[in-house]
Amino acid sequence: MTITNGIKAKIEELKKELKEVKGTATEVYTRIVGYYRPVQNWNKGKAEEYVDREAFNIHEQAIIDKKEDEIVKEEIDKLEKLDSSKNKFEIVVNDKGQVKKYRLFYSDNCPGCPPVKNYLRQIKLVGEEVNASTKEGFEEAVRHNITGTPTVLLLNAYGEVIDKAYTPSQIEQLIA
Known about the structure:
- It is a single chain.
- By secondary structure, the chain is α+β, with helices and mostly antiparallel strands.
- Among the domains are: about 30 residues, no CATH class; about 80 residues, Glutaredoxin, CATH 3.40.30.10.
- Helices cover about 45% and strands about 15% of the residues.
- The protein is built from 6 helices and 6 strands.
- The strands form 2 sheets. It has a 4-stranded mixed β-sheet.
- The relative contact order is 0.10.
């Protein structure tokens, strides 16, 4: 029993010492207005601002970012599953007439261009292909406000633009 009492007495003595521990003042440097300065030398306004700052832990933030990414992906999946009919394009009757020809704007390194080219070759529609990778093709694309490839301008008999399409399924719906 004396050993237990001795240990308890030593623990109480260490607890008292711990309460009386006095450290030395630490000088804290942090960035303010583009450079690092000791916080104790800041003016009153900046010192108050420092108190309002929140500490940033990069490891905790990485976990939060990962969770937010997962939540965003889940929400996108929910929206896509909600109504697949919303992804379909409406066929709108217009007063410009029927589609008679097309102009395909493509680029050499475009992964979406070959399927569109193949589809346009299968249908019996007169058209022309414009390589937007060339200087002349790029200038032509700019004149038509085309910002990406592939873009198909669907034209009436007078050469007026009726609509734009970007995928084979969109083309199919618009010329049907």
